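for the writeup, i need someone to sanity check this before i put it in the appendix. the sequnce is what the collaborator sent (i think, or maybe the updated version? ugh). structure was predicted straight from it, no edits. if anything looks off just tell me and ill rerun, i have time this weekend
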Amino acid sequence: MVIPEQLRLLNLALVDIGAGTSDIAITSDGSVKAYGMVPTAGDEITEILMENLMVDFMTAEQIKRSINSQDKIDYQDVLGMSMTINKEQLLNLLSPSINKLAEEIAANIVTLNGGAAPKSVMCVGGGSQVPDLTNKLANKLGLAPQRVVIRERSNITNLTDVKKNVLSGPEGVTVVGIAAVAAKKLGRNFITVTVNEKSFTLFNTRQLNVINALAFIELSPRELLGQNGKDIRFTINGKSRIVYGEMSKPAEITVNDKTANLQTPISDGDIIKVVESVNGKNAVAKVADFFSEIFGDLTKLNVNEVECTLNGNRVNGEQLIKSGDVLELKLNEVQKQKKDIGTSEKTIEKAPGKDNKIQVTVNGQRIEMSGGKEYILIDIFNYFNIDLANFTGTFELKHNGEKAEYTDVLRDGDNIEIKW
């Protein structure tokens, strides 16, 4: 009720800072779109006072509540000694804890709000009165100080006949707000939905969708996408090479057995099913996987006829390759001699009269392709480097000025353009 419905079109955050937790709600487009909680609140400030001033919990609470109203505070420690501390000393003592509380609340607000700060933050609860908390919170969110404010009971508009001296500050907002919401919702129904065979009850607000229900099973939107398997990036005979990891399989969402998404509206009795995403498998490659790529179609090639060097060390064809590895493959001297004089059947098949090499131009760069009988457009990525790690968007390929497919056959002198 601190944020009336007519204000919920604005992107606002409400933070209820209690004793043990700080609860957060985000409004936008006319409704409360996200809830969150930080397991840090006013008690952490009290505990700092207990530890440093050697006082019990209630005395620490009284000292904390007096900071805003008194310049000097008298108290008695657990040893029975009378002590005095001034406001400036207290603020210096509590500053790191207040800063930490503001930092955790601000980070949670930004996460719930899709990575950005809201337009304004309203703080309620007894813990919101901690000195300088609102200023630090504004600083962490990059907001002007006047955009982070403390709201009191008087800001709840639909209250009547309430004594002014009874919980009139922000500490009275939570309990009064609960009562006000209950009164307003009186006679309205909740809705019950089933998510993966478990029933949950939600407030019947103006519009609920799948993402509201998924909050109950603690499944974040990021988990719905899954992660692609890791690629292997290495060098083979001086040329960059990438073996791609497996693509992830996104989660499948249905509402009443019909395909749905996070924004699909839900209503009472709906049955929501979520098949979680499946992460892609990491790429796996071993040295022998690249024999034919380097030597062509060698009939019955024996692994002993190939010299394999990985990062300067001799290895066999079963050795696994990791990202960053440097691989060198060549025929041993006996095999090279047989290949050169043509006496062995283990020769590279080539078209008559051709040396199996072509030259093409990629984005203005002349590259030579060799080692294969025939080349298709996707083969250029074995010769032409693109930083796929930082790539976003969609490739546009042209082959001799025309829109191209990855399977287009390449000829000597062809021109390829890559844009994204």
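Residues 154 and 168 are 7 Å apart (CA to CA). Confidence is low (pLDDT under 50) at residues 337-354.
thx in advance!!
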